[in-house]
Design goal:
InterPro entries: Chorismate_II_sf, Chorismate_mutase-related, Chorismate_mutase_periplasmic, CM_dom_sf, CM_II_prokaryot. The chain is an all-alpha fold. It has seven helices and no strands. The chain is globular and about 50 Å long.
Length: 182
């Protein structure tokens, strides 16, 4: 007799998971741009290594977030959602920077990669990505409250990049992307 309730529950779970909707098309470009932004963290870390400046730059973070929030109405996004999203992007970027700097200190040197200028080259790239991220966040916004949103993100983050640091940073960058209750 106990077997029937268990079978009913198992059947319900299997049926529900079999009919789970795929992630919306708007998710892939957003995640791709987030990854692109995270890749720039490598260059930022090199710049900070060379200059000796700290990873934490609260003034710059405030400027980036304020700039994004100022553009929020043009993309029909709430100031709160934009602030939360870009705070997560910055935190993820810093995570990559801290990890690289720690590795380079342990090795006694940084890679011999080209060093683009932080102010003249890297920040303009980040500013350009900011507008693309805003548009893609706006495109994805209708799906943020979907109960399947956390599942879509978990699957995308699992199948995305294979580098552990980049994967962790991607998870951090998308941690608040879904508004659905968990």
């Amino acid at each position: 007799m106990r077997l029937r309730p268990c079978l009913a529950l198992l059947t319900t779970l299997l049926v529900n998971s079999a009919f789970a909707s795929p992630a919306p098309a708007a998710l892939a470009p957003l995640l791709g741009t987030i990854e692109e932004r995270l890749a720039i963290a490598d260059q930022v870390a090199l710049s900070k290594w060379d200059s000796g400046k700290p990873v934490e730059d609260r003034q710059r973070e405030r400027e980036v977030i304020a700039g994004a929030v100022a553009l929020a109405p043009a993309y029909k996004l709430s100031n709160e959602a934009v602030e939360q999203f870009f705070s997560a992007q910055i935190e993820a970027n810093k995570l990559v920077q801290y990890a690289h700097l720690s590795d380079w200190h342990a090795q006694g040197k940084a890679p011999n990669d080209p060093r683009p200028d932080l102010v003249g080259q890297i920040r303009p790239q980040l500013d350009q990505l900011q507008k693309r991220l805003l548009q893609q966040l706006a495109d994805f916004s209708p799906y943020r409250n979907d109960p399947q949103c956390p599942s879509w993100l978990a699957k995308a983050n699992k199948t995305g990049t294979h580098a552990p640091l980049r994967k962790l940073a991607q998870i951090r960058a998308t941690a608040e992307l879904c508004s659905a209750s968990r």
